[in-house]
Design brief:
Blueprint: H1 3-23, H2 29-46, H3 48-66, H4 69-74, H5 87-109, H6 115-138, E1 146-147, E2 150-154, E3 162-163, H7 165-187, H8 201-224, E4 228-230, E5 237-238, E6 242-243, E7 246-247, E8 249-252, H9 259-281
Antiparallel strand pairs: 1-2, 1-3, 4-5, 4-8, 6-7
Helix pairs in contact: 1-2, 2-3, 2-5, 3-6, 3-7, 5-6, 5-9, 6-7, 6-8, 6-9, 7-8, 8-9
The structure holds zinc ion.
Zinc ion is lined by residues 231, 233-234, 236, 243-244.
Length: 282
């Protein structure tokens, strides 16, 4: 495609989804700006097919965040501000995928094969889609969550590192949405890289394996090194250094290592796992 047309089309499509996301309060102003940076980077350097995959994540995350929001809000477990995501959240989820897309653009420019970055991208997006759906669906579970590092230990819903069967099923659905989207597109002949290879069902398989492992890493980091606090007002265990407008009391983990950093690290690890799988299998 003509580069000029591609840029104009990217601005229109990414801009339209950004405006829609802002209008239905999926993102705040800062989240919108970060989303435009991520979306345009992915579109321009990866291509429209890459953008479709990250859009699938974005829309699924929005759907499951809003899903039974009132019930989650009543239990004090919902995302703040109606679920509108701020820029740190967007960059935690989209940062590594955007880097992979940029690297893809670079290797294409240098006429080198860029397939490995496609898998880095897919592994990271699958991990974030898995983690987001696992969290949002898991909060609705009637089963008491158990700590991933000590499965005998029951924890309160919403606790970092807490897992439920429903949540893990949600994670699996998240990986299938991303990998299945890739598989479907490739079955229509869409190519994600300039190499001419059609990866077909491997996109699905690698998304499932890397996404589930990345999501597992996310839970383990959440249960171990993520900073956990106790609210000095309402007494809730929280991952926020501030709760109910007051500074919360340190409980465990590394105090500054908060949820968005956990997500960024987990997404990166999910991406690296997918790149490793690509090197081994393909
Ligand atoms: Zn509180």
């Amino acid at each position: 495609m003509d580069i000029f047309v591609d840029v104009i089309l990217g601005i229109i499509v990414v801009g339209a989804f950004g405006a829609l996301s802002y209008a239905i309060k999926i993102v705040s102003v800062s989240g919108l700006l970060a989303g435009l940076v991520v979306g345009l980077t992915v579109w321009l350097f990866g291509g429209w097919s890459w953008f479709v995959l990250i859009l699938l994540f974005h829309l699924s995350a929005a759907f499951f965040t809003k899903f039974k929001y009132k019930r989650k809000a009543k239990a004090g477990l919902a995302q703040e501000k109606g679920g509108a995501r701020e820029w740190p959240n967007v960059m935690a989820n989209g940062g590594f995928p955007a880097i992979c897309a940029a690297l893809e653009g670079l290797v294409v420019f240098l006429s080198l094969p860029g397939e490995i970055f496609l898998f880095g991208f897919i592994g990271a997006v699958a991990t974030m889609c898995a983690d987001t759906i696992a969290t949002e669906v898991g909060l609705l579970s009637k089963q008491t969550p158990r700590l991933i590092t000590h499965l005998g230990e029951k924890v309160e819903p919403g606790t970092s590192g807490g897992v439920t069967i429903l949540g893990e099923l949600g994670a699996l659905i998240g990986t299938v949405i991303i990998g299945g989207g890739g598989w479907l597109l490739s079955s229509f002949g869409v190519q994600f890289t300039n190499s001419g290879t059609n990866f077909g069902v491997f996109l699905l398989i690698i998304a499932i394996v890397s996404g589930m492992l990345g999501c597992l890493v996310d839970s383990i980091i959440g249960a171990t090194i993520q900073g956990i606090f106790k609210c000095s007002v309402c007494g809730k265990i929280t991952e926020k250094a501030k709760h109910c407008g007051e500074k919360s009391i340190y409980q465990r983990g590394i105090a500054f290592f908060e949820n968005n950093m956990v997500n960024f690290v987990a997404a990166t690890i999910g991406g690296v796992i997918a790149m490793g799988l690509f090197l081994i299998i393909i």
